[in-house]
Amino acid sequence: MSGLKKEHGNRLLFDNVTFELRPGRRIALIGGNGAGKTTMMEIVVGVQEADAGTVHKPSDYVIGYLPQELTESWTGTVLDEVLGGANHLRQMEAEINDVGALLGEFDHPDYEERLERYGSLQSRFEQMGGYQIEAEARRILGGLGFTTQAMDRPLQELSGGWQMRAALARLLLQKPDVLVLDEPTNHLDVDSVGWLEDQLNAFPGSLLFVSHDRDFIDAVAERVVEVAWGTATEYVGGFIEFVVQREERLAQIEAKAANQARQRAHAEKFIERFRYKATKARQVQSRIKALEKLEEIEVPRDADLKLRFSYPEPRRSSRVVVEIEDGDFGYDDEPSVVSDVNIVVERGQKLALIGPNGAGKSTILKAILGQLQPRSGDITIGTNVDISYFAQHQVDALNLDYTVEQEFRMSVGESLDAKRNVRSVLGSFGFRGDAVERRVSQLSGGERTRLALAETMCNPVNLLILDEPTNHLDLPSCDVLEDALRVYPGTVLLVSHDRHLIRNVAEQVLEVRDGKAVFYDEIEEHLFSRKAGAIKKAAPTKAVDNGSAVSKPPSPKKPAPPSKKKPAMSGNEERQLRKRVDKLEAAVQKLEAELAEVQGQLADPEVYADTERMHELIDKNDTVERRLQRSLTEWEAALEKLG
Predict the structure, then answer these.
(1) Residues 425-450: pLDDT tens digits?
(2) Which of 210, 312, 409, 599 has its CA 20 to 30 A from that of 79?
(3) Which residues contact 639 (CB under 8 A, 6 or more apart)?
(4) Whole-prediction pTM
């Protein structure tokens, strides 16, 4: 990307943006809502054109793009639509069948040519994983939370979030040269986010993605490009490295600006003192010209980096805010979603609900809100409990024809404290100056989420129920939400896949899984588990980002660069090396056979009826794939050394 520039109307999004997405490189694109991240991605994939600058890419490169909002209409089942990502294999399979059908004509003059073509196609098809493609599609869908029943349902019948998962699965099956993902974790649960991290880390192509999830950025990205202040700045490393380097860069800019201000003041003082002295005229003119050419260094304002919000004081509720005794919840004649639920939420408690999508988190929230009656058991809401609820699709309720200020006033204007100005409240959510006059239809997805949050959070309530509030939010807005929830004097029930937010806000987690709801005080280990009580990875180390804890898993060691000269090898060393090559080759063959066996089991639809067995096989498949890749790398290195 060279010298990219883009304006929307009279508003400059960015100018002179240049960075490289090299083969195998993984870049996280971050920045404020409305800064132009999505626009930049659309320019990269060719959906939009830049006002200036160019995007250079090989003509034969395949780019896979996952937008924030899908516009496709689906006609097939989930599995059929996902298999559409492997059309090149399906076309090859059709050609194999066509050529194979002709092989019965033994006396045809082109028989030998057809036979050779058939063998070549079969070999390529096998090498490209064609015979395991349906098993691979099912494995990917299982990792993203689809049951075997859901895989065979028409995709059009599913919600937008599940359609987005299917679109992501299709891209992962396609394995393009470049993956461009706009907020890929928005519709995923904690389990699926961890699974996706593993898949993207094993992805051999290039990756450009937008995310507000610090843990996800740290686990996947090797570089960060920040879109801010009308340009883009590249940083090497994950999110922690970005934070440190950005602070150093801002400190350097401030120092340069201060030095420039001193030089300017000194020059202006000289000009003023000797302006009318003939002997100093040449020196005065020289300084005047120098000042005219001096390009002023602008220091990013703190207001652009941090937003502030404080809650109105709610009335005091009873000690027990919510109590559920022996609750059993479900819909119509379907089996219960979650049962034997016993929950006591006390005043001031901050509780996060985690678990796979469809496990019953939102069902429990609906029961607390009175939108769903329990099949059995009792739900008691305490005395003087005032509730404000942010739903997953809260932004859909916004009036697109209103301005930001009109929408906010229509929603909560009359209930605001007399001391609080509407524009001041909107300003604390990032809508300053002319931004309040923009139409809701002109806002980005993150800006609409921010407006919906403002409407939810500005009322003086003592129980906040938030269902995936960080979807589409930028990092500064996530910081605002986190800071506000930490000092919020009331009670919080939070459903989120953002592990950083949960880690820094929640005091306990309620894990909803396999029809049960269980309390845990050990938050960290349950943020990384795929099954209840199973730790996926060790707790990461912590650093500090302006008072908020951020985490980073340990970075893998980089291999040492190869030496330029190959040292002479003794006869004994050569024999040992040949033995190692043979041993590694045998290990590769064994792992390939093991992988084929696991994928064969994953191809059996009955496996997906047993969730625990499905996840065991998916985990085993991932483990064997990693071991196979490692053995292949070692084998190739040994062969190269052997010469």
Answers:
(1) 788 787 888 888 999 998 877 788 88
(2) 210
(3) 581
(4) 0.68
